[in-house]
């Protein structure tokens, strides 16, 4: 059994009252290093008060709050921020008349050393710090892709869309160099497409940014998508080399590939169909498929692989010249699988293949999985729809907080009473 991760943030017996109202009572909570943990509950449950207690806005009436073992109770908010705690707010709180870049720079000034007189006189040391702060702001904004870069650096914050204001607030929190991010309803007020993007962003903040995250959220799709309730997607990313394990090994066909890069593992026979498909929308169907064979320089082999994919999915041949972004969700899923098969995988990883699809398209997707498996490809599928996944699987694993809590033949798991109650909706 792997050793448990150390708690980065820990609350023990925390209570807070406002007059006669007990808002938080004897709360115990911990967030381990590298985790994404969600706090859910109805309005008035004390969720935002929890964040205010952690960040020093309020002081608890009782209990302890520790960051990496250090007591936070009694410290000023700016001191807690310097120790590595940053937050966003339920209602976006930007400096609306400042530019996008200036908003992020403002958060970074807490780590600068220049004295006020040095800043006024523009001494060499102050100018160096100003350049470093500007570069830090640009790096943090670049994390959000094209949303907050280029000409947007000089735009006032009030000119941004609501979703980009949310992103900017997260970028500003990142500029304080936190160890843990507290995100207060980051998807509030967003449409479904923006909510899905925010869900993916939170995952990237952990996997690529290296942040530990505590998130308050009402939208259960977001909660299910980002929280480390199981660690399913992280398992796939670790297998593919996108995330380095803290301990243990990844063995592929008898070879230890733990320290090998993703490109090596793909060349050795692994491929992935990522969550939400992620096809190249401005490219044609054929161009997307050809990207899957990028590592194969043999034209004859590539033509043979393309023919094999077309035999599995005739629609892809019929739509070869169509832009991928114009396909339906189910057709894009088919294209994503076809693209992965172009790399000649022996092991195909699929991350939440049914996410965002209608019930009819979910059935078609799992029929597609059976077809690919029947063609001789081993498959490891991460899926929240346990009924459908176990119906097509040979074996299954149930993960909880990154640990295997059940493992058996798929049929035995479907009949397991505890599993049926928890995941399959059984009486």
Strand content: 15-25%
Number of domains: 2
Q: Based on DSSP secondary structure assignment, what is the total number of beta strands?
A: 15
Q: How much helix is in the residues? A: 40-55%
Could you outline the blueprint of secondary structure elements for this entry?
Layout: E1 7-18, E2 21-32, E3 36-39, H1 47-54, E4 62-67, E5 70-71, H2 77-83, E6 85-87, H3 100-108, H4 116-121, H5 124-142, H6 162-174, E7 180-184, H7 192-207, E8 212-216, H8 220-226, H9 232-240, E9 251-252, E10 255-256, H10 262-267, E11 270-273, H11 285-292, H12 299-312, H13 314-318, H14 329-341, E12 347-351, H15 359-374, E13 378-382, H16 386-392, E14 395-400, E15 403-409, H17 410-415, H18 417-424
Parallel strand pairs: 3-8, 6-7, 7-8, 11-12, 12-13
Antiparallel strand pairs: 1-2, 1-4, 4-5, 9-10, 14-15
Write structural notes for this entry.
The protein is an alpha/beta fold and 427 residues long. The longest helix is centred in the N-terminal third of the chain and has 19 residues, at 124-142. It is 41% helix and 19% strand. It folds into two domains: 7-226, P-loop containing nucleotide triphosphate hydrolases (Rossmann fold); 232-393, P-loop containing nucleotide triphosphate hydrolases (Rossmann fold, 3-Layer(aba) Sandwich), CATH 3.40.50. The mean pLDDT is 87. The protein is globular and about 70 Å long. It has helices at residues 47-54, 77-83, 100-108, 116-121, 124-142, 162-174, 192-207, 220-226, 232-240, 262-267, 285-292, 299-312, 314-318, 329-341, 359-374, 386-392, 410-415, 417-424, and strands at residues 7-18, 21-32, 36-39, 62-67, 70-71, 85-87, 180-184, 212-216, 251-252, 255-256, 270-273, 347-351, 378-382, 395-400, 403-409. A four-stranded antiparallel sheet has the order 2-1-4-5, covered by helices on one side. It has a four-stranded parallel sheet with strand order 3-8-7-6, with helices on both faces. It is built from 18 helices and 15 strands. α7 packs parallel to α8 (220-226) and α14 (329-341) runs parallel beside α15 (359-374).
């Amino acid at each position: 059994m792997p050793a448990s991760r150390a708690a980065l943030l820990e609350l023990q017996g925390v209570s807070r009252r406002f007059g006669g109202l007990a808002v938080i009572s004897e709360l115990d909570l911990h967030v381990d290093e590298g985790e994404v943990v969600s706090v859910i509950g109805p309005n008035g449950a004390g969720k935002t008060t929890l964040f205010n207690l952690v960040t020093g806005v309020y002081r608890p009436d009782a209990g302890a709050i520790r960051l990496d073992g250090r007591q936070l109770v009694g410290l000023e908010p700016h001191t807690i921020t310097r120790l590595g705690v940053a937050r966003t707010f339920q209602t976006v709180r930007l400096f609306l008349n400042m530019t996008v870049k200036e908003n992020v720079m403002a958060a970074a000034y807490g780590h600068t050393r220049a004295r006020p007189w040095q800043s006024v006189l523009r001494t060499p040391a102050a100018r160096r710090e100003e350049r470093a702060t500007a570069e830090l702001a640009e790096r943090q904004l670049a994390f959000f892709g094209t949303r907050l870069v280029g000409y947007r650096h000089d735009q006032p914050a009030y000119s941004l869309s609501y979703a980009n204001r949310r992103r900017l607030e997260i970028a500003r929190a990142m500029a304080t160099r936190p160890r843990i991010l507290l995100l207060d309803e980051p998807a509030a007020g967003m449409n479904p497409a923006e909510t899905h993007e925010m869900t993916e962003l939170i995952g990237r903040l952990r996997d690529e940014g290296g942040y530990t995250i505590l998130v308050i959220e009402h939208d259960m799709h977001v909660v299910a998508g980002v929280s480390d309730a199981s660690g399913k997607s992280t398992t796939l990313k670790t297998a593919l080399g996108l995330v380095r394990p803290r301990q243990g090994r990844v063995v592929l066909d008898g070879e230890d590939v733990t320290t090998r890069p993703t490109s090596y593992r793909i060349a050795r026979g692994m491929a992935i169909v990522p969550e939400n498909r992620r096809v190249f929308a401005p490219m044609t169907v054929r161009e997307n498929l050809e990207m899957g064979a990028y590592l194969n320089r043999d034209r004859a082999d590539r033509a043979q692989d393309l023919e094999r994919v077309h035999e599995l999915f005739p629609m892809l041949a019929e739509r070869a010249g169509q832009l991928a972004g114009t396909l339906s969700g189910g057709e894009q899923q088919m294209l994503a699988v076809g693209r992965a098969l172009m790399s000649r995988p022996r092991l195909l990883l699929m991350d939440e293949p049914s996410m965002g699809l209608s019930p009819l398209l979910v059935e078609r997707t799992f029929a597609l999985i059976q077809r690919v498996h029947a063609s001789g490809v081993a498959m490891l599928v991460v899926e929240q729809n346990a009924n459908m996944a176990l119906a097509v699987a040979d074996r299954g694993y149930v993960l909880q907080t990154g640990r295997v809590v059940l493992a058996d033949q798929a049929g035995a798991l479907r009949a397991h009473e505890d599993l049926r109650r928890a995941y399959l909706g059984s009486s």
